[in-house]
Amino acid sequence: MEIHKTSWPMRILIFVLFIYLLAPVILVFPLSFAGDQVLRFPPTSWSTRWYTALFANSQMLKAFWTSLTLAAIVTVLSIAIAVPAAWAVTRLRFPGRDLFFNVFTAPLLLPTIVLGLAILIVFASFKLLATLHGLVLAHLIVTLPYALRVLAVSLSTQDRACEEAARTLGAKPLTVFFRVTLPMMTPGIVASAALCFLVSFDEVVITLFLTGPRITTLPVELYNYVYNQADPLVAAVSALLILLTLAVIMIVERAMGLRATFVR
Amino acid sequence: MAMSSAREEHLRLEGVGVSFGTVNVIPSLDLSVPKGEMVALLGPSGCGKTTTLRTIAGLNKPSKGKIIVGGRDITHVPIHERDMGLVFQSYALFPHMNVLENVKFGLRMRNVPSREAESRARQALEMVQLAHLAHRKPRELSGGQQQRVALARALVIEPSILLLDEPLSNLDAKLRDEMRGQIRSLQQQLGITAVLVTHDQVEALSMCDRVVVMRSGHIEQSGTPTEVYERPATAFVANFVGRTNKLKGTVAADGSLMGLGQVLHAASKPGPGTVDILIRPHRIHVSDGDGAGDAENRVRGEVSNVTFVGDLVQYTVSVAGDEIVVEESTRRGQKMLSTGETVTLAWSAEDTLVFPENQT
Amino acid sequence: MIAESHKRELSAGQLAVVLLLPIALVNVVGFILPILNLARYSFNRARIGGGIEDVFTWENWVDLVSDPFYREILFNSIWVSLCITLVTLVLSYPIALYLHRATGPWKTFLTVLVISPLLTSAVVRTYGWIALLNDNGPVIGIIKALGLPSPSLMFNIKGVFIGLAEILMPYMILALLAGFGRLDPRVEEAARTLGATPARTFREIILPLTLPGIALGCLLCFVLAVSSFITPKLMGGGRVFLLATEIYDQAIVTLNWPRAATLSLLVLIVFGAALWAYSAVMRRLD
User: Fold this and answer.
1) Does A243 reside within a domain?
2) Cα separation, A260 vs C183, whole angstroms
3) How many CB atoms are closer than 10 A to CB A98?
4) What are the residue ranges of CATH 3.40.50.300 in chain B?
5) Residue C140 included in any domain
6) pLDDT range class, residue A245, cuts 50, 70, 90
7) Chain B residues with CB inside 8 Å of C192's CB?
8) Does this model's pTM top 0.90?
9) Does residue B83 belong to the interface with chain C, where contact is any CB pair within 8 Å?
10) Between the CA of residue B343 and those of B1, B289, B294, B297, what are the distances in Å?
11) What is the ipTM of this complex?
12) H or E element: which one contains B191?
């Protein structure tokens, strides 16, 4: 539009702001190829030593597998739990419906530091600390609200007429759900699965309270590593993690459109 | 009808071209609007009429050509200095200001002292009979009321040119009729030059001094309502401005016109070849007799359908394999014809519009 | 032809219970009970060496209010968060506006660019800032190359400020975009045709109409800043004391769970106050 032609000073400003926004994420890539022992940029030499070191670091690798497994389990469970819940909240009328929806999405609003402490205290008495099922439960608390929101949006923007048409053509309610509603929800399910996976995979604060030497996730392992020595190994891990995230985002974009998922 | 030749030219577009990216929406447009006249840009959606209007307002930049207002080249003048009043199709009232503040806005931008702005704004609201709603917010008003506020807001600044982008399309039919009259009388009262964009030929014909029919970024015809209706320059114009029956025919080497299996008479014909013959439904008289009278064209056919539409009755008559629609006003005591009846259709040579084939 | 099923049809309420049971269970066990428990703990007393005495006492709260160390932490946390929120707003607004007006694949590309940092772990993003701001990093390097005195940006509040402001930008941008979404472009055009310069259009039309988005963004960023843990902890090097770092230290290092619980509730109270302020602003705006 003519009225929105951006002037050159404005373009430069926005460019600078984008650099600020993306600087840390961009920096880790060249940094991961540094040849130095300590964190330094620009590096004095270049090498792939840190990638080699990464794949030789059994603790990191073990933590990575734990994170991956955990995220996979959490994702599957989140979808399995959130789909019926989202359906109930958007398709059924019952007293307190809105209240339930708000309560179930409330964990999103709570600071993870508070949640982490609260869960730590409860898990301690139930002997759930440093266990995989404890971590699954803890992660579910934070992924379920995301899944519920995305799926509820997906369901409420669907054209109900298709379901109604199926009913008039003789399909029983359960059949309608599996043959019509669920397939139509596929983009929403893919989007929320990707989201749950990333949220669980990246979760660090709550997990920090609940892990120990017996079991640890990649973000926690990274945290401890950075806390103690902060060398370019972390850059190598970070670079790979960012690429993983981007890959998942591409999937979401293809499935449902990024803007639709986040900007309402 | 105004003597347009006596008025000086106020707005002129010279070779104006508009492109969006690689799409050349308007190749080259020439338009001239005399002072104090209201001109309609009429055409189907996508013909470029709104683009033209927005280009005049400065909301689009022309890729070539000049826009001249009152002798001054304003092609490169920024939007906020063009001194035009634009009434948007969606009204675009400022939701966070009340009606009075909306109307005062343009005056504030011109640094009119606040007491004067207040009184002028109130006057403008009185002109559209909305003074009593001055302190309401736009969302509290009906569509028709919002439209009048938008009009008042555009007029209060006493712009040199008033631009209206399909101002009536969001109103219901009754309100539309009312507002047509109001807008036209306001425009004439203030003597302000105006350009109205519409796809509704009733609006164009009833409100404006001149109608410019547009199609695919070109002007098909520019003339008074009567000219455009009675003497359309192309089949497209004939078809768009009013309903028509379309028949295939031929003009022979000797200039005679053949259609419906017989010789037909037309006031003007193009050169030899296949042609489209257009006749307006209500210019055809249908009767169950011979059809006495001095109409030059007379054909016989059989009524295949009768539709009663309240004000009118539509007869579909089969003639020589073609279906012709005839419209007559309903009159008390006048017997309606019935299907199967053999009838005579009669119409004058002047009402026979002939164009070379495939101009629509 | 289609007979009604003989199965007893569940009422909407009963069906809802069945479908919502799993999520309700997770919520109660993992969220509601723990938070309520937290409240209980803040009124208990810690036993030396871990564990709690099951007494009801106000002493945690009294300590909080009377101990200048905690008063300072609370004040710092709130003050720093407010400042960061303001800075983030100013930095995010131009990007959000530009993004809002962009179209087509360029817009999608930019949106992905803005959103993707959100989906990377806080540790990765904080590490990025450590790499940027440490004494051997590019920022100090450029400052030195320009001949200016090099400030210390690590292990103090300055680095935390710079890092946190950037980390919160995507949240602010998204909130602003949601607000811009409600801005009708025709209204901007109307203002321009009525004689408003681009600057005046911004001041009188765009800014007031995007205030709800601004309010939401500020709430979001303030709340995230006040409870931020990873960035202050990693970049502060144990020398930056904010509410979140203190909660962690009390819980894991000192093992004084009641005190940690009290601090957590304090965070929730600050939260509540921010929410209240936000709704007050939103009511004014209507």
Assistant:
1) yes
2) 17
3) 9
4) 4-235
5) yes
6) confident
7) 58-59, 79-80
8) no
9) yes
10) 39, 6, 17, 14
11) 0.84
12) none
